[in-house]
Amino acid sequence: MQTATSITNFLQQPYALTNEQISFYQKNRFIKLKDVLNEETLNFFNDAITKTVALLNTELRPLEERTTYEKAFLQLFNLWLEDEVVKELIFSKRLAKLAADLMEVDGVRLYHDQALFKEPGGGITPWHADQYYWPLETDKTVTAWIPLQAIPLSMGPLEFSAGSHQIVSGRELEIGDESELLIQQKLKVTDFKHVIEPFDAGEISFHSGWVFHRAGANKSNEMRKVMTIIYMDAAMKLKQPENQNQVNDWHRWCPGATIGEIINSPINPVLY
Q1: Which of 65, 141, 143, 200 is 20 to 30 Å from 26 by CA-CA measure?
Q2: Burial of 121 (0-12, 13-18, 19+ CB in 10 A)
Q3: Which residues contact 19 (CB under 8 A, 6 or more apart)?
Q4: Rg, the chain, Cα only
């Protein structure tokens, strides 16, 4: 099944970044960009991704029976391998070029994608840095956080600690109650600005692997629907894993990759 020609064409068109926006990202390691997706494209993929998540989701337990992490969202990975329509968004040149331009690299390849659907009443997403989980040699990584609808503060939009990629302590924590408590305490005694804002429809954020971020609970009666794409430098090499989570990620997201060599597995294609 192919998307409409207008949507396919739109996803190939570049988004014009200014030098000021690139500088902002390099300093703060996150940025929010408005109107990255138009209304037609957003509605189309909202429908396609929602259907795919409903088909693949196996979490049927009530929220009160889950851990803090499990309450945060329904999490499904590599939807591009499950649905050809969703693949068009994941392989979008428009988004991949944005990732490359923000990181100031020549090209990017896919690490993996994931849907993060925070249910009505779903809990917080604790403070954490993503790259704790990734066996990647450099910090040339960025996640596109793509809301499939407008996200007011009541639904739990992504929050950032601007420039907090400079903090080393806390990088050893996996996401959970401990990371929420300890990183929050650490950030309170630093000068890094806590940015919490709603997202407009079509607005997307990009954040680096080592910048600390969280999200609030979903206090609304609607599902908070988000798709994410994790990009890495096209020349990224696999490093020696430093924890069991990185070992797990190596075998799951970089199958067959060799330590010290460029990650060029069949599920890590160059997207731009």
Answers
A1: 200
A2: middle
A3: none
A4: 18
> Residue 206: which residues within 8 A CB-CB, separation 6 or more?
25, 30, 31, 33, 98, 99, 102, 142, 143, 144, 145
Contacts 24+ apart (CB under 8 A), 84-87: 84/1, 84/2, 85/1, 85/3, 85/45, 85/48, 86/45, 86/48, 86/49, 86/52, 86/227
Per domain, the residue ranges of the chain are: 35-253
* Per-residue pLDDT, 171: 65
Whether the CB-CB separation of 106 and 40 falls below 8 Å is answered with no
User: Facing residues of 117 across strands?
Assistant: 74, 225
Look up residue 115 and give its two tokens: 């849907």
User: Which pLDDT score is estimated for 154?
Assistant: 98
Say if CB 106 and CB 100 are below 8 A apart.
Answer: yes
Q: What is the pLDDT of residue 4?
A: 80
Contacts 24+ apart (CB under 8 A), 186-191: 187/127, 187/161, 187/212, 190/164
Quote the tokens at residue 83.
């649905």
| Phi, psi (deg, nearest 5) at residue 158 | -70, 140
Please state the rounded mean pLDDT for residues 134-139. Answer: 98
Determine the residue type at 97: K
Q: How confident is the model at residue 189 (pLDDT cuts 50, 70, 90)?
A: low
Residue 1 confidence class, pLDDT cut points 50, 70, 90: very low
Specify the residue for token string 């403070």. 127
Cα 176 from chain centroid?
A: 17
Superfamily of domain 35-253: q2cbj1_9rhob like domain (2.60.120.620)
Distance separating alpha carbons of residues 229 and 146, to the nearest angstrom: 8
